[in-house]
Amino acid sequence: xxxxxxxxxxGIGIEVLNLDxxxxxxxxxxxxxxxxxxxxxxxxFKNMGKSIEHQIKLSRCFGELDIHPVKNLVTNNRHPELxxxxxxxxxxxxxxxxxxxxxxxxVGFIPWHSDLVxxxxxxxxxxxxxxxxxxxxxxxxxxxTIAAYDALTADMKERIEHLEVEYRFCTSLxxxxxxxxxxxxxxxKGERHFPSFPPVIHPLVWRHPVNGRKILNLSPLHLxxxxxxDESESTCLLDTLVAHVTNRQFSYIHAWQPDDMxxxxxxxxxxxxxxxxxxxxxxxxxxTIGGDVQRGRIIAESPALPA
Length: 307
Ligand SMILES: [Fe+2]
What we know:
The protein is an alpha+beta fold. The protein has a single domain, classed as Clavaminate synthase-like (Double-stranded beta-helix, 4-Layer Sandwich), CATH 3.60.130. The chain has 6 helices and 21 strands. The protein has helices at 27-40, 52-59, 87-93, 145-150, 154-160, 231-245; strands at 4-7, 14-17, 42-45, 65-66, 74-75, 82-86, 94-98, 101-113, 125-132, 140-144, 164-167, 184-189, 200-203, 205-207, 214-216, 223-226, 251-254, 261-265, 269-277, 283-289, 297-298. The strands form 4 sheets. Strands 1, 2, 3, 4, 5, 6, 9, 18 and 20 form a 9-stranded mixed β-sheet that branches. A 6-stranded antiparallel β-sheet has the order 12-7-8-19-10-17. A 4-stranded antiparallel β-sheet has the order 16-11-13-21. A hairpin with a 2-residue loop joins strand 7 and strand 8. The longest helix is centred in the last third of the chain and has 15 residues, at 231-245. Residues 113, 115, 271 line the site of fe (ii) ion (FE2).
């Protein structure tokens, strides 16, 4: 094998070592990398992403690259599959502070979510590459929702086995119904032009299409309700499950150095951008790995009544 694998302390995710991205990646190495990704969900490549070409070459080992449908941020003209996450643009979108530290404005914060969970077929994965890092903060955190499912009690597993949840696209982080930090405030909200997404219904417990393991399909940012359940019971159960999945026992937090790359399996993980001080410079490139697997179904809009 053309690389080594090291487990990350805490048991969530792995690190790949000694992979030379200046060389071609052989089909055998590509297969080993893909299997390691499917097996672990979160793969760290420290100090290996020296260029856009390195990132794109490595990303293509895991599937076709998608162009993200939410184009509120900038893409790279020469590489449309590359999303550019840059501090100046992020500061024009949303600036946050916490009640406990009103003078510490920060940007680039995104609470726990899985990408495109508000659609019927979310992308399979994504990879971030740090180009420039802020003086402090800017970490990204991931949760393994297979580990979170495995840790549920047998009673809870039985209770949620056949439940379904509704997800809705949430245009403001402060509108999230679940998992919200009550001390989080927004100082500035810029204009965004999002496409519209109809609500979708997903299974709450889902089997990973490749490895067959059960996933707790719970993405707090876009979570609306459990279908066919009394609202107070639904809220109570979802609060319990959100507290379980986000209790940090199942998480890995990456403190970025330039040229680090982290790949995740979006079908079985949540992630959160922890934010960094307003005024700090940060530049991250992202690729998105597609995957045409149906997980949910769109809730049909009611037909318009005849005039
Ligand atoms: Fe995301």
